[in-house]
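To fix ideas, we close by showing one paired sequence and structure record:
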Amino acid sequence: MAAGGRGCGDGAGVGFGDGAASAGPAATRGSSTAVATAAAAFLKAGTFENVQPPGAGADTGAPDTGPMRLSRSASWFLLAFGVWSWFIWITFVKNLWNDASGLAFDDAGDPTGYFWVHLLLAVTSFLLGTAIGVMGLRGVRALKRERDEK
């Protein structure tokens, strides 16, 4: 129950009925009532009715079944990001493996938690960078194909 003896939906503005989405006396910044009120106001704003279903064209109402197109600059940016990821994260793992500071390996030469966390970070970033670079490469190749067809 909210402060002041009010529960959900009884005029405190946290219900999802037809009532106004006012904050009421119990809503203060950072309180759960204020968060719930923001959610109620968002839901009452008609946002769900304004969202087009996937594939629906905004102008004609006809489904948009064509492939997504990236701009030339976006494609090159994504490709450059992928290439950059290869250089950065491979270098990072080499430096991590050759770490002499004692952070990555203990005195017995066994990997520490620092090593495993940073290796996981590097591998994840490398894989995401590769996927982003592949998207950029596909965009560049598609633009080149379009240009050659004209």
Residues 56 and 63 are 4 Å apart (CA to CA).
